[in-house]
Specification:
With 588 residues, the protein is mainly beta. Among the domains are: 97 residues, Immunoglobulin-like (Sandwich), CATH 2.60.40.10; 93 residues, Sandwich (Immunoglobulin-like). The radius of gyration is 28 Å and the shape is globular.
């Protein structure tokens, strides 16, 4: 197909135009001369009045004679058919209901930068099996690799270097996409939220200095909650007096010191912290208030070394249950449920503590790394297990119901990770488990470099290994991970809005009528709030749409009373999922 030469340098100025919350919405995405770090790209372009369809033309500049064309009924289009390390150019043709081209844009150029992170000759996700039920366009975020892959194992996005925050030599942890399409992760010093290009949007404040001996730090888990706050694990250090019967065990430990003639040891306590958008600490839970000294001195760690630290390594919040927070302690083999409103411990699960605390699920899991609430309120645990002392043990995924009332709680569902001969199923550290929309569990085995998806009927439907190539040894080696997470796309929350069915104004008519078409262009379901005001800010009408699935829309009739002073109305459409995602139309 031959390209139609552009008739002008930009779109016509139309009576209906979109504006962002901070100004005129006339920009195009991606911008001309952009350098991108992803191959799944959202194209956005100005609306054209009377356009019924838009044709997006794309050219890979390495094969300039080949033009690919994509159509859309809105001013948004998401396309995934790109490659790292290439230049492209694009433009849009607007056509009317008779398929006649009524406007065309200039060409715009962008580059998708290729870096070592997405070099398939250096790093790869070796896919062993993909069931036909799997949507291979879904994404998996792999934190140590700093990338998102599709389920074909192909890199789709990478977290670029951020000066002073992230570089190629630094491992990040708990990389995930939020419900509103931003990205969160932990580096070695802080908890950070950024946009798709790596621009920092929010960063946790320096952690409070709880002790004169050492500053605390952020670690293990960081998540943006659905109501916009941020929850993260932190630490503090406290020196505790060593019991007399334990003095020999800790003799020579570098974390001990003499205070008033007695030997003390530095203990690391975990703290769950919740911040608001202004970085104000709005809630916290300190594990020192829960753990008694006799409990922390009664155990070792997963390395079988005497260690009084409980090693808090996970949290999750069940917002459906009014904010119940789960906290996991690896070296206590224990999961604790906390009421967020009061800070009271509601229940605990795991091995019995010497202090005599009530316990359930004794022996169900040991030295676990992750625990997450499922949609039905049950808890899924990645159980690393006691593999150093028990050579026959396998790591596993365990699901139990915390609301059951039993003296000893058994798992309702479990899955051993030694399910084939490709790996021994034993992971000493790391790992994660999370529930997908289809009810399957997405699992990372952490120190064992395997990632997989398993159904409730214990069928493996997707499976692979993270690997790194060694040029010196000329072979692929295991590349362990920390956690992985799921995303339906890089754009979970996006929408378009346009005016349709505009009625011709009748003489002496007191009403002007048209329809608003709101389309969910993101990959997650959403609903929208529509507010209509006049140019002076006076309220006219308010509409809330039904919940729209991805790639669906809804039409809403609007009738505006005509008055001599009313020259223009403002239509504001806001996502219910992400209140920051707002579009405005000015209608004259």
């Amino acid at each position: 197909m031959q390209a139609i030469e552009p008739k002008k340098t930009g779109f016509k100025i139309a009576a209906v135009f979109l504006i962002l919350t901070l100004g005129l919405f006339s920009q195009r995405i991606p911008k001309d001369s952009s350098i991108l770090n992803y191959t799944q790209i959202l194209f956005e372009y100005p609306s054209v009045k009377k356009a019924s369809e838009y044709k997006l033309q794309l050219i890979d500049l390495s094969i300039p004679k080949e033009i690919k064309e994509y159509t859309s009924s809105s001013n948004l289009k998401i396309i995934s058919e790109f490659s790292f390390g290439k230049y492209y150019k694009w433009r849009v043709l607007a056509t009317d209901k008779n398929k006649k081209t009524i406007d065309s844009s200039s060409y715009f150029v962008f580059k998708i930068r290729g870096v070592e992170l997405v070099n398939k000759n250096r790093y790869r996700i070796k896919i062993n099996y993909t069931d036909k039920s799997i949507n291979t366009n879904e994404l998996v975020f792999i934190d140590y690799n700093r990338i998102a892959i599709n389920k074909k194992g192909e890199p789709v996005w990478y977290l670029p270097d951020i000066p002073g925050k992230v570089n190629f030599t630094e491992r990040i942890r708990d990389l995930r996409i939020t419900h509103d399409g931003t990205f969160t992760f932990l580096n070695n010093r802080s908890a950070i939220e950024c946009d798709i290009n790596g621009n920092i949007l929010w960063e946790a404040p320096p952690i409070a200095n709880y002790s004169k001996d050492s500053m605390g730090f952020y670690h293990h888990c960081f998540e943006k909650l659905t109501y916009g706050n941020y929850m993260v694990l932190g630490t503090k250090y406290v020196f505790k007096k060593i019991p007399k019967e334990k003095l020999t065990e800790y003799k020579g430990n570098q974390n001990t010191k003499i205070i008033n003639g007695e030997m003390y040891i530095r203990v690391e306590y975990g703290i769950v912290m919740e911040y608001d958008i202004d970085k104000k600490l709005v809630w916290s839970w300190d594990s020192e208030s829960y753990l008694k000294d006799e409990d922390i001195f009664a155990h070792g760690n997963a390395d079988t070394i005497a260690n009084p630290g409980p090693h808090m390594n996970s949290f999750d919040m069940n917002e459906k249950e009014g904010g119940t927070v789960s906290v996991g302690f690896r070296d206590l083999s224990r999961i604790v449920l906390i009421d967020r409103q009061t800070g009271i411990v509601l229940n605990s699960f795991g091995e019995k503590l010497p202090s005599g605390e009530a316990h359930q699920a004794n022996g169900m899991f040991k030295f676990q790394h992750d625990s997450r609430f499922l949609n039905d309120g049950r808890i899924a645990v990645f159980n690393n297990n006691d593999i150093l002392l028990n050579k026959d043990a396998s790591s596993s995924v365990v699901v139990f119901n915390p609301s059951q009332i039993k003296p000893v709680l058994d798992s309702e569902w479990s899955f051993n990770c030694d399910f084939d001969t490709l790996a021994n199923g034993r992971s000493f550290k790391g790992g994660s488990v999370s529930e997908l929309k289809n009810g399957n569990l997405l699992v990372s085995m952490g120190n064992l470099n395997r990632i997989f998806e398993v159904t409730p009927t214990k069928k493996i439907v997707w499976d692979g290994f993270c690997e790194q190539y060694s040029p010196s040894a000329k072979k692929w080696n295991p590349y362990p991970q920390y956690r992985i997470s799921y995303a339906s796309s890089l754009y979970p929350n996006y929408f378009s809005v346009k005016i349709e069915n505009e009625a011709k104004k009748k003489k002496n008519s007191k009403l002007h009528t048209f329809s608003l078409n709101v389309s969910n262009e993101g990959s997650e379901k959403d609903s929208y709030h529509i507010l209509i005001k006049d140019e002076f800010g006076y309220f006219i009408q308010e509409i809330t749409t039904e919940i729209l699935e991805s790639a669906t829309g809804s039409l809403h009739p609007v009738s505006i009373p005509v008055t001599p002073s009313r020259k223009k109305i403002i239509i504001e459409v806001t996502s219910i999922t992400n209140k920051n995602n707002t579009k405005k139309l000015s209608y004259e």
